[in-house]
Design a protein that fits this description.
Layout: H1 5-11, H2 20-32, E1 43-50, H3 58-71, E2 77-81, H4 89-93, E3 101-102, E4 109-110, E5 113-115, E6 118-122, H5 137-149, E7 156-162, H6 169-177, E8 182-187, H7 191-206, E9 211-217, E10 221-222, E11 229-230, H8 237-245, E12 249-253, H9 257-264, H10 269-272, H11 277-299
Parallel strand pairs: 1-7, 1-8, 2-6, 2-7, 8-9, 9-12
Antiparallel strand pairs: 3-4, 5-6, 10-11
Helix pairs in contact: 2-5, 3-11, 7-8
Keywords: ATP-binding, Iron, Iron-sulfur, Metal-binding, Nucleotide-binding
Organism: Volvox carteri f. nagariensis
GO molecular function, one term: metal ion binding
């Protein structure tokens, strides 16, 4: 019986750093080691769904976009929950329990769980009940590495990464060490959210990660009784930010109780009501994202997205 998440992950061969210096040494060692990219060798594109701001519905967006890519566009899709401290993907995807291990290769790899045709990995799978993750940066980085590099993703067209809020270790870790195809930024229209989202955009540009576009979440609310449309969080902010960064608005998602109830139940609207208007919003975003990835690939013919070091 594993006493905690750290016990289980350590038993798979990924040891945790106990000091910042030790963690940095291990990260440098892993950076040049072949095991770092083992699980990603057949992944074509890695896309970050990010915001740098909490509470804007980023995880719900990531889940519905991933499900739309898999069920409506017919792509092979993976979903990585990169939020170690506050993982929500298991609830949103209706998945639980620790992943099994594939020990066939030189290093044991975790087998992702799957629902709605999306292969999923989250640190939430390793937590029991209300167990908190009271960890510092080096341990968080190692746990993130284990999920990203130590998962047997198999052949994927797109790996969607649900990023945690902020501009810290997880974003830098991913942006500097993995050839990411791009990042899509999620924001509500209000200025207080866009201040942080703009900082997130600047961070990815500094990391030389292309911006694929912006997603306006909670764009408006339509009264179920009278049909009046209310712009609760304002209007035009996301469009202005997109113009400033020279990217498009990939889509707008309304503020609707059905999204909340379906998310809490682990039945995302794209899966539970695939022909509905709410699902159409996410499907449109998935189509625009996929088109952007194809355009990027066309500009870089013959260059593999993921390489495996010898």
């Amino acid at each position: 019986m594993w006493r905690c998440a750290a016990d289980w992950l350590s038993a798979t061969g990924w040891r945790f750093a106990t000091t910042a210096a030790h963690g940095a040494a291990r990260q440098q060692q892993h950076h040049v080691g072949p095991q770092k990219k083992l699980g990603l060798k057949d992944v074509q594109h890695i896309v970050a769904i990010t915001s740098a701001k909490g509470g804007v519905g980023k995880s719900t967006t990531a889940v519905n976009v991933a499900v739309a890519m898999a069920t409506r566009l017919g792509l092979r899709v993976g979903l990585l929950d990169a939020d170690i401290h506050g993982p929500s993907i298991p609830t949103l995807m209706n998945l639980k329990g620790k992943p099994a291990l594939d020990k066939a290769g030189s290093q044991a790899l975790m087998l992702p769980k799957e629902n709605y045709r999306v292969k999923t990995m989250s640190f939430g799978f390793f937590l029991e009940g209300d167990e908190p993750v009271v960890w510092r940066g080096p341990m968080v980085n190692n746990a993130f590495d284990k999920m990203l590099f130590g998962t047997a993703w198999g052949p994927l067209d797109v790996l969607v990464v649900d990023m945690p809020p902020g501009t810290g270790d997880a974003q830098i870790n991913l942006g500097q060490r993995i050839p990411m195809s791009g990042a899509a930024l999620v924001s509500t229209p209000q200025d207080v959210a866009l201040v942080d989202v703009r900082r997130g955009a600047q961070m990815f540009l500094k990391l030389r990660v292309p911006l694929l576009g912006m997603i306006e979440n909670m764009s408006h609310h339509t009264c179920s009784k009278c049909g009046h449309v209310e712009r609760i969080f304002g209007a035009g902010g996301v469009e202005r930010a997109a113009r400033d960064y020279g990217v498009e608005v990939l889509g707008q998602v309304p503020l609707h109780v059905e999204i909340q109830t379906k998310s809490d139940a682990g039945t995302p609207v794209v899966a539970s009501d695939p022909r509905g208007d709410l699902a159409s919003s996410y499907i449109h975003i998935a189509e625009r994202l996929h088109a952007g990835l194809q355009q990027l690939a066309a500009r870089q013919p013959g260059s593999p997205k993921i390489t495996v070091e010898p």
